[in-house]
Amino acid sequence: MLDATLLRHDLDTVVTKLATRGFDLDVEDFVRLDTERRRVISEAESLKAERNRISEEVAHLKRSKESADHLIRQQHEVGGQLKVLESSEKQAEMAFRDFLSRIPNIPHGSTPLGSDESGNIEIKSWGNIPKIDKPRDHVELGTQLGIMDFDRAAKISGARFTVLKGLGAKLERALINFFLSQNINAGWLELLVPYLVLQDAVYGTAQLPKFEHDLFKTYRGDDPLYLIPTAEVPVTNIYRDEIIKADSLPIRHCAFSPCFRSEAGSYGKDTKGYIRQHQFHKVELVAFTTSEMGETELENLTLQAETLLEALGLPYRRVALCTGDLGFASQKTYDLEVWLPSQNCYREISSCSWFGDFQARRTNLRCKAKDAKKPEFIHTLNGSGLAVGRTVVAILENFQQEDGTVSVPKALQDFMGTDILR
Known about the structure:
The chain is α+β, with helices and mostly antiparallel strands. The protein has 2 domains: about 25-100, Serine-tRNA synthetase, tRNA binding domain (Helix Hairpins, Orthogonal Bundle); about 115-420, Bira Bifunctional Protein, Domain 2 (BirA Bifunctional Protein, domain 2). About 40% of the residues lie in helices and about 20% in strands. It has 13 helices and 18 strands. The protein has an 8-stranded mixed sheet with strand order 1-11-12-13-16-10-9-4. A 3-stranded antiparallel sheet has the order 5-7-6. α3 runs antiparallel to α4 and α7 (about 165-185) crosses α12 (about 390-400). It is elongated, with a radius of gyration of 27 Å. The mean pLDDT is about 95.
């Protein structure tokens, strides 16, 4: 969430920066809601002051053993007015906060300008693209190897689910263990988090209210619980409403979890195969740091995700997303895209984002230096380290052999107990 003070004091600049990402801020609506909120707050404060003044006079008269009946009547009248006004104040505050919650983050100054993905900039590429005559896609490979069953998964759960069998299930599990081991060895503290979260948690990481259509929701009694779309949600909310010592930052966590997404709005895109599923596995990297170290931490997080791809020998590239292609909460993002021979292109396998204090304002997450007069909002970051299912796809396609077998990357052979899938 953006700082309301920033909008009040530098509204034109905010409008201009948001326009670079294709967002048209309703200035009239902001001014109207902000004015109404401040008006109601001011009136409520005046009535509270009046109530306190009357209470003091009543107390004085009672001490003097004089009649205070007329003031007590006034006290009741002011109390009634205040009760009505407090209700209006609450409604005005909710309307204003709802308006702010629907405004995306302001792009960082180093984010390239652009209207859509065509404005993204390749920063670097790594690895040799394999030369494969007539490459099979992962669906054909997985089906022929007997390690993927899409038809039986559809019978159980419908479209966009997959049953992994034998070495397919083992490959998925090996990748989870490999990613966690590599991240832990690099200093990221592993967490195992809940997969169902409260509404406040998905609001805190900015999935709500904008992306409610993409979430799966269940209920405990009358209270909603959301299935997590990524471990980012519970991990980021761990420190909600806390003030952390600045000298303990950065804090770096990694967490494996299943992820659940309705993929609303992606109809017709990657509906076949294992790339875009309603349920998938991911190891997430989440970092917390100070405002001064935010950009440095983005580089560190992105490099950590890159080491995983390089350890597996998977060719990839790093792309800086332009303003028009940024995620709602991000101010700067690097996408890591892995090469898929069957599609003859790179596809996203990790999105590493720096949110500034956007999420921290929603979660009230702050840090305080020893010599600081007051705490400041923490900067949060996250990225996949890595998306497990898409890594399975990349391994099948990049290491396929002419005879239909698939070589297992050396880094996974101890986890798999074999060097080939057949």
